[in-house]
Amino acid sequence: MLLEDDMAVTDVAHPFEMSLAAISKHLGILTRAGLISQERRGRVKWCKLEPDALRDASIWMQSFGQFEAVNLDAFERFLETELSAMPEEDG
């Protein structure tokens, strides 16, 4: 969805049958992983794809394709575990 343009968090959430809080949590994980960035413009939080980081992640995941299909749910759990162990950055 973010390939074409930046989007407000509410617009990202719109097509999904999940709460805004759940979408925000997912977007927070992607932000902490460096795959997207978020910025506040007035009262609205906007998301922007970070294509270089996404390309690096894609190359990294493709290396696992030779062994078995990548389970994205397991990958998300892995990222949550790894990122929760990282110290929070101020700012």
TrEMBL record:
Q: Which GO terms describe its molecular function?
A: DNA-binding transcription factor activity
Q: Any idea where the HTH arsR-type domain is?
A: 1-71
User: Which Pfam families does UniProt cross-reference here?
Assistant: HTH_5 (PF01022)
PANTHER family recorded: SLL0088 PROTEIN, TRANSCRIPTIONAL REGULATORY PROTEIN
Name this polypeptide is given:
Transcriptional regulator, ArsR family
What is the native source organism of this protein? Answer: Roseovarius pacificus
